[in-house]
Amino acid sequence: MPGDRKTPHAIVGPGVSVGGAGLIVVLAITTRTADATGPGFSTAMSVGGLTVLWFLLRGVRVLSIETLLLAATLFVSDMTLGSEPELAAAMAAVVVVQTLVAVLLLRRWCPDLWGCGGERPLDRPRLLARYGGALAVGMAVGAVLATVAWTTLTGERVELGGALWFGRTLCSSLVVVTFGLLLGERITSEPPRPRLLSSASWLELLAAVAFTLGMYVLAFWFDELPLAFPLLAATVWFGLRFSTLLSATHSMVTGVVTLALTLRDIGPFAATDREDLGYLLAGFYVATIVVTGLGISTGRDEREALAAELRRTREEAEYQASVREAVIGSMNEGLFVLDDGGSVLLHNPAAAEIFGLNEGEMTREALVLRSNRWADGTPMPDAERPSSRALAGETVRDVEILVSPGEDLPDRVVSVSAIPLPRDAARGRARALVLFRDATTEHARREELAAFAGVVAHDLRNPLAAIDGWTEMIADELDTGGLDAQLAREFVSRVRSSSRRMRELIRDLLAHATASARDLDVARVDVTEIAREVAAARHAEKQVTCRAIPAVLADGVLIRQVLDNLIGNALKYVSPGVDPRVIVRGCPHPPGCVTIQVVDNGIGIPRGEEEQIFDEFHRAHYRDYEGSGLGLSIVRRIITRHDGTITARANPDGPGSVFEFTLPAYDVGPDDATE
């Protein structure tokens, strides 16, 4: 079908076609009026609306069996009413053409309307305008064709004939098609459906019906008085307060009553001298109340839909705002938005915390004052600030700066990223989003790693240089042929010693790394038993005394590593000729913890180095004793991971040292008490 946007489809079964044809014949016979003359006026009730509704519901095409069925039905009806065959055929063809024109225009101009290819009801004034225009054009085409056909076939010119045809068919179309489409859409729509009464109540509906009856009785009873205007008030009431379907139903009922009473010479429209003129006025009045009621109803529907959409939009905006606030508020990273006017438009609690500012103190001046240095402590020019660069349109990623949150708080290294935002068109200001996170620990670890790598490289070079030197000497002796067995054994011994030192250093490096990377597997640990096992492994059962120590809640593997380092150092760092004596003891102190001591009679700790001995690669007696300088650093890392502390001091009871550390106490539960 030319011009169709959608392929028409049948909404109802073929039985509707048979029913429609029968209804047309019944209406033609029952509403016949012999006094009316003109093109096709032998029946007062126009079937124009019925045919349009039939074709829409059945999805009829131009060339179809149902088009022929309609033409045949109209021809038979006119012949039954006494029309000449030629005139009956012509008028049947006119009704078919006007029906097809109206249907084609409805499908083109209102493709979203239910029955015309879409699913939506008649609920917008613009849609109503296109809908009414399509029906008006279709009926106007029919009026012109009917007038031409009548004049050509009969030779008579009937005054107001075309206008009467147009008024009757347009009135019929507006009443019947509108009611049919609205009712069909409501029946087929999925629940929940809109309230039939809209915002009104059943009591108000009864009042409106009573008001309509009263106004019609008044207008049609006192037909000599011009009282037709109060009838419009009832239409306005229904249009304002009730659903579009109820408004259309009201217009249909009042329209049929108006036309029926006018045909019986009752009411204000029958007061004219000419019956056809009165009927024409009645038809245009019905069309007026239908359009008025629908205009008010669809305008109300549109306002309600816009209000509902506005509510949904506001609720969605409020929900999105709450989600955004929750997300921003829960971020550990700081965030703020500022403009080139110096205003901080948005910030989260993490931002205030990192900068050490209260809610009302988050200004650009305060931020600049507390973050005006790079991470290395050098001054930061204002033009090179990440926020300034972002306001200029540049994206900045992971720049480290130094933040001074307050006099009583240490400086923090903060990693900053800044992103330009869309410009504020209303104020003409640039905006930027600044994200930052506390990178103090990360920065310290990088610095530590750099220092660690330097020391490792230095300490690994020494045994490698020794191995390289001794192997070179072996090669030189082999080249000269003077390498004897004793000298070879000496060289090999030196190489093995250097290799052993390298293996121990690598072992300690691995232990140092895993001391902080390995996940804790905490359980009940018997420290006394582990100390005895360490002493046995070192064949030092006689030198190590293990006293009863309360059980602790810790990682057994790491605690064994702690005791092995401390006992091993106690056995190692003794004066020449001195038999090492080590005591491992403990007691529950402070509350919830166990304090454990490893006491030795060794060479002791140089004065002032009680803290330094726990640093990586620090060796208090590096000239006289070999070692990597990592053992005590490993011990401190393990104890710290258990939320404990470790200290070292001189032995008050004689030569040697006391290493004292704390671990969480193992609380005896009900299950343990029964064991």
Short key terms for the protein model shown above:
13 strands, six-stranded antiparallel sheet, 5 domains, disordered C terminus, Beta-Lactamase, alpha+beta, 19 helices, five-stranded mixed sheet, 12% strand, single chain, Arp2/3 complex 21 kDa subunit ARPC3, disordered N terminus, 675 residues
Provide a descriptive summary of the structure in words.
This protein is of the alpha+beta class. The chain has 5 domains: 190 residues, Arp2/3 complex 21 kDa subunit ARPC3; 117 residues, no CATH class; 108 residues, Beta-Lactamase (2-Layer Sandwich), CATH 3.30.450.20; 77 residues, Orthogonal Bundle (Helix Hairpins); 155 residues, Histidine kinase-like ATPase, C-terminal domain (Heat Shock Protein 90). Helices cover 55% and strands 12% of the residues. The chain has 19 helices and 13 strands. A 6-stranded antiparallel sheet has the order 2-1-6-5-4-3. It is rod-shaped and about 150 Å long. The two termini are 92 Å apart.
Straight-line N-to-C gap: 92 Å
Query: How many alpha or pi helices?
Result: 19
Helix content: 40-55%
Structural class: alpha+beta
Largest sheet report: 6 strands, antiparallel
- CATH fold-type name of the largest domain: Arp2/3 complex 21 kDa subunit ARPC3
CATH architecture of the largest domain: Orthogonal Bundle
Rg over CA atoms, rounded to whole Å, is: 51 Å
Tell me the overall shape: rod-shaped
Q: What's the CATH class label of the largest domain? A: Mainly Alpha
The total of beta strands comes to 13
| Low-confidence parts | 1-5, 34-44, 669-675
Our estimate of the beta-strand percent is 5-15%
The domain tally reads 5
Mean pLDDT: 81
Order of strands, main sheet, comes to: 2-1-6-5-4-3
